[in-house]
Design goal:
It comes from Idiomarina fontislapidosi. It holds the Pfam family Plug. It is a multi-pass membrane protein. Helix 1 packs parallel to helix 2. The protein contains six helices and 42 strands. It has 847 residues and is mainly beta.
């Protein structure tokens, strides 16, 4: 039976941020690297950390591929409400945010869609319509025992990533000795919104006797719920600058009111009738409801203007009001059987994800024209210059209201069989392992769009903003004026037959279904001999994809079904080595290959052609896109001191083929008669190279309070390059860009202080600017960059007794803003502020 330490604050910090150069569990040799069942770990009943950190570092030291580990007790320490918030402090990882909350994870500078997420070895379905990336803010951190980020892609890891795989590991009753339960309650506060946010979670597990088998059946259950309300102040241009006639074309001021509810449940059952036989059921249910009300002021100038100048133009006041619910479910049933030197694993898994946005107001617009007096001032935080009438409801006339009803669903089923054999010899040991995996994935998306306009002709008498106005909107950047009432708008819309206003073109183009069948097999060998460990093998994956969508021809006003098929097969070899230079110094080296299939948005067979005053224009997906592949090299060294600590450095290089970007292919073969043909294409080769440094150090030898400090820091430098091309009057042109989402520098530092009863941590997270989007493939001046970002967080935990503790956290201490610019920092693309957040909680644990 396994007894796993219930690690406390700094214990978990060492695990989560340490550059663990370790091997994933499926490839560990049971002779030299004991499994959890073979290596009992003593429970620690206080919040001391020395012994536990030493054991954790030893575990990292003894294994072979490159991973990072995040333990349960390090999730949530800094108000990490989701997995993504916690993962951002690991080496080489950074987060993409939505409304200030971490959402998607980048690994070593590679975008989220180039990394994979799995739950106990089964790939999770993604809820969003166009993406493969799993939004990790959907999953509460309370439901998991640990997270393992594998940066070395061994053959037993399913394809789906270039940067790495994020493995979510559920808790089981055998993680602890006997009955265990934990209850926690937390109250959060957002300073900008002046809102309080409750959170509750509970965890329980126990083992039971079945017949003569003592402690053979385990039950573990976890649940959590959080209700968080906050506001966001935003101003953005969306890149609407004209650099040929220097000036701003339009910008938008936005005030968000957001409520996010996270609910998670997990139930895990284990039956272990003997040391050589076990059966298990793993389940996960997570629901994330995001309610958003967005009041906006869109100012469009007659001609591009400079700062502090006046112009004619138009102001549109806009409301967006929607509730979006994302759900992820995953269920696995399996068994592990051991006969002497053989081990068989058989598992059947299914995952379902959905995104529902029923009848949302996608844009209700009220318009007012101005002959003069419109302008702006400021650089990052733009402010509107306008007459007083711009802030009065009477001057705005209702123009149109867009309503959308959208639903996306993804289902992923898989069957895997793994067989391993340990071949033991006097001077070496080899574990041979092979397996097959059959998986089926289906992605369906639909969106019905309704456009209501010409309200006077419909007999509506409420035609000005004054008829729908609320009180003045709270907006921290500028004067805003009245908001728009969603209830008043629905009162008018409910008198109409909404189906009469369906936009058949947009609605039809938005619907598609994509089926993927993937058959995979692998073989690998894990050799241990003296100071060497070598893992070698290859994975084979065959994909068959069928897609269905809609083609619309504007000239003929004709709809027709669009079908596409794609087939591909890839070999993915890898070779990983580990060599002990001494008892305290280890060298790691690895060659591996990765594969990522294009996103569903990029390959969907939707095709729209229009004749725009004689110009033939088209916009469509590209089902023929080739998968992205990479060849990866890693070389690292790590040194352990005799007390508690590790220093490591790792160099990595990724050569990437077939990266995907959006381009206008008019004039190219097959599209010679088009004036515009926007789709996605495979680019030339790209690369990512970098260095990762990590230090975990426990101060010692002072014989004073200084011995209570733990320093935990990591630094990653990354460089990348890709080439994009286009046609200019028939001549092929090209330019080099960094890969989107790749920061040159990411860094984390955490300073912990801990006694037997008190734990504190101050943590800083930094990422440098990165290319967020190609604004114009042909002109680098329009490229969209996210600016440098530095956040500072603090947490503390006080142990009142062995069972009861109080915790307090402050997030975003420096009130860091989010800033995106167009080409140069002088040109705003987006600027947002979220404010500080505080939390106070209490936890009771039956140690």
């Amino acid at each position: 039976m396994m007894k796993k330490t219930y690690l406390v604050y700094c214990v978990a910090a060492a695990l989560s941020s340490a550059h663990a150069v370790a091997q994933s569990e499926p490839t560990q040799s049971t002779e030299t690297k004991p499994s959890a069942e073979q290596a009992p770990i003593e429970e620690v009943l206080t919040i001391g950390y020395r012994e536990s950190v030493q054991k954790a570092v030893q575990q990292q030291r003894d294994a072979g591929g490159i991973i990072n580990v995040l333990k349960k007790d390090d999730m949530g320490k800094l108000q990490d409400d989701s997995i993504s918030d916690a993962l951002q402090r690991m080496p080489g990882l950074s987060v993409e945010r939505d409304q200030g909350e971490g959402r998607f994870i980048r690994i070593r500078g590679l975008a989220p869609d180039l990394n994979s997420v799995s739950y106990n070895g089964t790939s999770l379905a993604a809820p969003e319509a166009g993406r493969r990336a799993v939004a990790l803010d959907v999953i509460p951190s309370d439901l998991l025992e640990s997270v393992v980020v594998s940066k070395t892609l061994t053959p037993d890891i399913p394809a789906g990533s270039l940067g790495g795989n994020i493995e979510l590991k559920s808790m089981t009753a055998f993680d602890r000795d006997g009955a265990f339960y934990s209850l926690s309650s937390e109250l959060g506060y957002n300073a900008q919104a002046s809102e309080t946010n409750p959170k509750f979670s509970a965890v329980a597990s126990n083992t039971f006797d079945i017949g003569d088998n003592k402690d053979s059946f385990g039950v573990a259950v976890a649940g959590s719920h959080q209700d968080r309300s906050f506001t966001t102040d935003n101003v953005e241009t969306g890149g609407n600058w004209d650099f040929d006639e220097p000036g701003l074309e339009e910008f938008e001021q936005r005030a968000y009111q957001v409520t996010r509810e996270r609910t998670g449940l997990a139930l895990n059952l284990d039956y272990r009738p003997s040391e050589t036989s076990q059966y298990y059921l793993r389940s996960l249910y997570s629901e994330f409801a995001d309610t958003e009300i967005r009041q906006g002021i869109i100012t469009e100038f007659e001609d591009p203007i400079a700062e502090n100048t006046a112009s004619a133009g138009e102001i549109t006041r806009e409301l967006k009001d929607r509730k979006e619910t994302q759900k992820i479910q995953a269920y696995m049933i399996g068994t592990e059987q051991t006969w002497q030197d053989w081990q068989l694993t058989l598992e059947l898994g299914t995952s379902e994800a959905s995104e529902s946005q029923p009848f949302a107001i996608g844009g209700a617009q009220f318009v007012q024209s101005f002959d003069d007096g419109l302008g702006y001032q400021g650089v990052e935080q733009l402010q509107l210059i306008a007459p007083d009438s711009a802030y009065q409801g009477e001057g705005y006339s209702i123009d149109e209201v867009e309503v959308s009803d959208a639903y996306t669903e993804e289902n992923a089923d898989s069957l895997k069989v793994d067989l391993a054999y340990d071949w033991l010899q006097p001077s070496y040991q080899v574990t041979f392992k092979g397996g097959i995996r059959i998986s089926q994935r289906e992605k369906t998306a639909r969106e019905d769009i309704f456009i209501v306009e010409d309200f006077a002709d419909l007999g509506v008498s409420a035609l000005t903003l004054a008829d729908y106005a609320t009180g003045d909107v709270e907006y921290g950047f500028d004067r805003f004026g009245p908001g728009i009432s969603a209830d008043a708008l629905w009162g008018v819309l409910d008198t109409l037959t909404l189906a009469d206003f369906r936009d058949d073109v947009e609605s039809s183009i938005a619907q598609y279904q994509i089926d993927e069948d993937i058959n995979a097999g692998y073989f690998m060998a894990d050799l241990n001999s003296g100071a060497w460990q070598v893992i070698a093998g290859a994975r084979y994956e065959h994909e068959q994809r069928d897609a269905r969508g809609t083609r619309y021809n504007d000239e003929l006003n004709e709809f027709s079904p669009e079908y596409a098929e794609f087939s591909d097969a890839q070999w993915l070899p890898s070779l990983i080595g580990r060599y002990e230079l001494s008892n305290s110094t280890i060298v790691r080296m690895a060659y591996s290959t990765g594969l990522v299939r294009p996103s569903f948005e990029q390959i969907r067979p939707s095709y729209f052609v229009e004749n725009d005053d004689g110009d033939i224009k088209a916009e469509f997906g590209n089902p023929a896109l080739e998968p992205l592949t990479s060849r990866n090299l890693d070389l690292g060294i790590e040194h352990y001191d005799e007390t508690l600590g590790v220093m490591s450095a790792t160099a990595f290089y990724k050569s990437i083929k077939n990266f995907v970007y959006e381009a206008d292919i008019a004039g190219r073969p097959g599209y010679e008669s088009f004036d515009e043909a926007v789709t996605y294409i495979n680019g030339d080769d790209a690369y990512v190279a970098g260095l990762e440094f990590n230090l975990v150090h426990q101060l010692s030898g002072f014989n004073s309070w200084l011995d209570n400090f733990l320093i935990n820091t990591n630094l990653t430098f990354t460089d990348s390059e890709a080439t994009v091309d286009w046609l200019d009057d028939g001549t092929r042109m090209e330019r080099d860009i960094p890969l989107p989402s790749q920061s040159d520098t990411t860094a984390n530092i955490a300073l912990g202080y801990e006694t037997q009863d008190l734990s504190m941590r101050l943590a800083a997270n930094y990422k440098s600017k990165y290319l967020a989007e190609l604004g114009d493939v042909e002109d680098s001046r329009y490229d969209i960059y996210e600016d440098d970002n530095l956040t500072l967080d603090f947490s503390t935990k006080w142990l009142l007794s062995e069972q009861l503790s109080v915790n307090f956290a402050v997030n975003n201490i420096t009130d860091e803003e989010y800033f995106v610019y167009t080409g140069d920092k002088r040109y705003n693309a987006q600027y947002e502020a979220y404010g500080r957040s505080y939390s106070l909680g209490i936890q009771w644990v039956n140690w």
